[in-house]
UniProtKB/TrEMBL annotation:
<dbReference type="Pfam" id="PF04542">
    <property type="entry name" value="Sigma70_r2"/>
</dbReference>
<dbReference type="InterPro" id="IPR014284">
    <property type="entry name" value="RNA_pol_sigma-70_dom"/>
</dbReference>
<dbReference type="InterPro" id="IPR013324">
    <property type="entry name" value="RNA_pol_sigma_r3/r4-like"/>
</dbReference>
<dbReference type="InterPro" id="IPR036388">
    <property type="entry name" value="WH-like_DNA-bd_sf"/>
</dbReference>
<dbReference type="GO" id="GO:0006352">
    <property type="term" value="P:DNA-templated transcription initiation"/>
</dbReference>
<dbReference type="GO" id="GO:0003700">
    <property type="term" value="F:DNA-binding transcription factor activity"/>
</dbReference>
<dbReference type="InterPro" id="IPR013325">
    <property type="entry name" value="RNA_pol_sigma_r2"/>
</dbReference>
<feature type="domain" description="RNA polymerase sigma-70 region 2">
    <location>
        <begin position="52"/>
        <end position="98"/>
    </location>
</feature>
<dbReference type="InterPro" id="IPR050239">
    <property type="entry name" value="Sigma-70_RNA_pol_init_factors"/>
</dbReference>
<protein>
    <submittedName>
        <fullName>Sigma-70 family RNA polymerase sigma factor</fullName>
    </submittedName>
</protein>
<dbReference type="InterPro" id="IPR007627">
    <property type="entry name" value="RNA_pol_sigma70_r2"/>
</dbReference>
Amino acid sequence: MKNRSNEQLCALAQKGNTNARDLLLENNFGFIRKTANEIYFGMNLGESELSIDKDDLEQEGCIGLLDAIPRFDSSKGTKFLTYAAPSIRNAMTNLIRDAFSRYEQRMVDTKDGLAFQKIRLDEVVPGEERMLHIEAIADPIAKSPEQIYVEQEILRELYAGLDRIGRREQAYLLYRYGFTDDIEHTTIGAAIHFNLSESRAKKTEEQAMDNLWLELPWWF
């Protein structure tokens, strides 16, 4: 049975074969673990107060895979793992959302409704590091000199615009869109990082983007 494909194992599992179900979990656990790592580190859960570790995410991912088994239809030509992947990821993110909802109820907002307590607001990209980040996009093999120049100029203008908006908004956008770590974080990930409610994070982002657009030269 170990040599059977995911699709064959799923067909057996749909008929009640528990060994086939267990093999599906075993064969696809590497993908579940990889997804858990991406979410765990992408959302900085290790630095959050949600008390969620990678094992929790992996367990939810396994549940997500099992939930996909009865719904899978091999006649549509889709690979089982391709079909199950959204269910695996959704199970993990639902765990985070549930934990975050409980955490939101315990949060105490500051006077203006913001609570950027996880990082200092002056921890933005310094000039030297900023230049390295701008120059890092240069790839003489993949891009022409003209493309490199245009991308560098756009990045310089973005940083210049960020310098002209509020410090909190600047810190939020730098983190949310990966200016500092090259990872575009989700809204809920940014909310966790800055100790904000999800609704407050969305409002902060909307206001920050509005203010940034007004500072960009191509907006006029």
